[in-house]
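hey
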């Protein structure tokens, strides 16, 4: 008995009306953002209510004088307030997707709704990447674009807030030379390196101020390259220091983070390596130990969606736009709230 077979050209292809968005990590810095001076990433929204192309962030340094005692006159023994300013410019960022009625007819997927979702994810990626670029910037210039002279100047200015590998002695005023002191064997991210970075951050001048949480607790947060995070996790596992038990009450802690010596270590997969810059040509991984006011995010216009209809209603577009600026805070030529740690970033075998 012969059975009828529908030819390939006559077969109807049904696409699931739901669409699967490409996996994009949400903003891994969200929980560290806030509007006050205790935030690691401080949000500045002055320009949302008034005109201007820049926001100026002001730092008033802590008092260092001894004061007076007894009958000593205070007049003439006062202390001046050291103050610095840092300007964050804002710029407009836009993107959009346009769909014709003809193309929409060819699929059961609601392309315009899909576009809104993907534009939102695009925006999340952009702000995440901008924060990472800011953390690694050199004198306000993205690391990838900075000249060797810029990196050397940054290294000298931040000598008390940078660590190359596992020893202070690895420092060199020439940035490239200092990176060559980072080797694969002894300069992995470890509990010893985290503890050393914390101690140095507390000794820096001006101090990299830790974030106050739960009123009586101070915390630094280190944003770690994934290869460095791997090495630290291995090191901490040997001493049962995994923070999944110890850090759950800290509002800055997130499942999957590590904690050691009062420092929360958060893996940020998008932090890359400096290829071939270490001893023997190994890759070097940057990691950023952050305190308060490490990064400033200046908003002039919050992210908003827009629509556009043209060609007699045949073409329909959906867009997204925002106006903002993101910079690492620098006062008096020093990274204000960031201590940078360069460790081995050897790829998985």
């Amino acid at each position: 008995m012969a059975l009828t077979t529908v030819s390939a050209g006559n077969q109807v292809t049904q696409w699931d009306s739901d669409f699967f968005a490409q996996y994009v990590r949400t903003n891994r810095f969200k929980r560290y953002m806030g509007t006050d001076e205790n935030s690691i990433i401080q949000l500045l929204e002055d320009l949302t209510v008034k005109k201007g192309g820049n926001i100026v962030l002001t730092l008033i340094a802590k008092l260092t004088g001894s004061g007076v005692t007894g009958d000593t006159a205070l007049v003439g023994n006062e202390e001046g307030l050291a103050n610095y300013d840092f300007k964050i410019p804002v710029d407009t960022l836009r993107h959009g997707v346009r769909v014709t009625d003809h193309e929409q007819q060819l699929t059961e997927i609601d392309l315009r709704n899909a576009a809104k979702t993907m534009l939102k994810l695009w925006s999340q990626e952009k702000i995440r990447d901008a924060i990472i670029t800011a953390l690694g910037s050199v004198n306000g210039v993205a690391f990838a674009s900075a000249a060797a002279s810029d990196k050397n100047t940054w290294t000298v200015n931040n000598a008390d807030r940078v660590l190359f590998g596992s020893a202070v002695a690895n420092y060199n005023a020439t940035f490239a030379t200092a990176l060559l002191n980072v080797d694969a064997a002894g300069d992995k991210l470890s509990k010893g390196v985290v503890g050393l970075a914390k101690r140095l951050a507390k000794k820096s001048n001006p101090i990299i101020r830790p974030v106050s949480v739960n009123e009586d607790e101070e915390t630094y947060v280190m944003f770690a390259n994934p290869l460095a995070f791997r090495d630290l996790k291995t090191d901490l596992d040997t001493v049962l220091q995994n923070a999944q038990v110890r850090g759950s009450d800290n509002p800055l802690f997130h499942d999957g983070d590590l904690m050691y010596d009062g420092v929360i270590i958060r893996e940020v997969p998008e932090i890359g390596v400096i290829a071939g810059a270490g001893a023997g040509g190994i890759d070097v991984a940057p990691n950023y130990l952050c305190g308060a006011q490490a990064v400033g995010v200046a908003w002039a216009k919050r992210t908003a969606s827009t629509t556009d209809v043209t060609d007699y209603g045949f073409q329909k577009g959906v867009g997204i736009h925002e106006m903002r600026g993101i910079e690492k805070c620098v006062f008096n030529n020093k990274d204000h709230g960031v201590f940078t740690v360069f460790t081995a970033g050897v790829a998985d075998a």
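The radius of gyration is 25 Å. Residues 111-135 form the longest helix (25 residues).
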